Amino acid sequence: MFSIFLLSSAICSAQAVHAEQVKLLASIKPIQLIAEDMLGDLAEVDVLLPPGSSPHHFSLKPSSIGLIHDADLFIWGGPGLELFLTKTVSQLERPALALLEGGDAHHHDEEHAADNEPSHTDEALGAEADDQHDHGDSDPHFWMAPDRALAAADLIKDRLVERYPTDAALYEQAYNDFAARLSVTDQQLQQQLKVVGNTGFYVFHDAFGSFVEHYQLHQLGYFTVDPGRKPGARRLSEIRTALENDQARCVFVEPQFKAPVVDSLIRGLDIRVGRLDPLAVAIEAGPGGYSNYLQSLADSFTNCLSAE
């Protein structure tokens, strides 16, 4: 009887330790925020890219490749977001999880998209938009909208349940709790952002479309699709004209990129400059981390767009 008790205790202890010690590696900080906010003490979630590094322009070092191979599960966006990871991921012994290939995290809420008039995002782009790659319905920045982030969390939960079935109930409960917390945050942000929903603005690069659509904000356009590419003269001229005609109250820049072209364009105009961080560099991973990130975006919008 005593030996049975010891065996039972050992199994329970092993499961508890196992659940706490699953080693996840996220490719970028926003994915880490989602996973750690959902899983808490059930997993150790590290991040591959250094703070502020853009997945659009990054080269893997041998040490980074080693981290990917050592993880129990590597979670990345997929080739549409992080093409530089494709070869390494294909060589993994334990299959990685590509969130954008999972279906739901790739999906846009069609009702929100329909509620926004096309002019909100394309009005000032003109024919030049045809000359550059546009994310369109395949916007890879899925973490910008709570519904798409929740879909990503669901994919992470499903993979963990599949790989560690003895801990399935723990992962299911963690997901349900995360969904409930995120719903509360979403409702609060809906109310907060209503007051600035009709105020025009420009962003530096095309990364915030999912947030804009979900909260029905009035984005007039962006300077560039890829932050590594300079905007064309025609686009800059159209943006300048819109700013001179008081169509926008704010232009948003990003901490990862110097944007002298923005400073030059708004010189002499009464235009506010706000900051939006697509990579959540200043947000601490942990309980509430992803909700805190959404709140930081909402605060940036309301602070810059609100009437004085």
Written description of the protein model:
The structure is a single chain. This protein has 308 residues and is α/β, with parallel strands linked by helices. It contains 12 helices and 8 strands. The strands form 2 sheets. A 4-stranded parallel sheet has the order 2-1-3-4, sandwiched between helices. A 4-stranded parallel sheet has the order 6-5-7-8, sandwiched between helices. Helix 2 crosses helix 12 (289-305), helix 7 runs antiparallel to helix 8 (168-194) and helix 8 (168-194) packs parallel to helix 12. The longest helix is centred in the middle third of the chain and has 27 residues, at 168-194. It is globular, with a radius of gyration of 21 Å. Mean pLDDT is 84; it is low at 1-18 and 106-136.
Give me the count of strands: 8
Gross morphology is: globular
Cα distance spanning the termini: 74 Å
Residues in β-strands, percent: 5-15%
Number of helical segments? 12
Task: Draw up the topology in text.
Blueprint (H helix, E strand, L loop, with lengths): L1 H19 L1 E5 L2 H11 L3 E5 L14 H9 L2 E4 L9 H5 L6 E2 L11 H6 L3 H4 L23 H18 L4 H27 L5 E6 L3 H6 L3 E7 L8 H12 L5 E4 L6 H7 L5 E4 L13 H17 L3
Parallel strand pairs: 1-2, 1-3, 3-4, 5-6, 5-7, 7-8
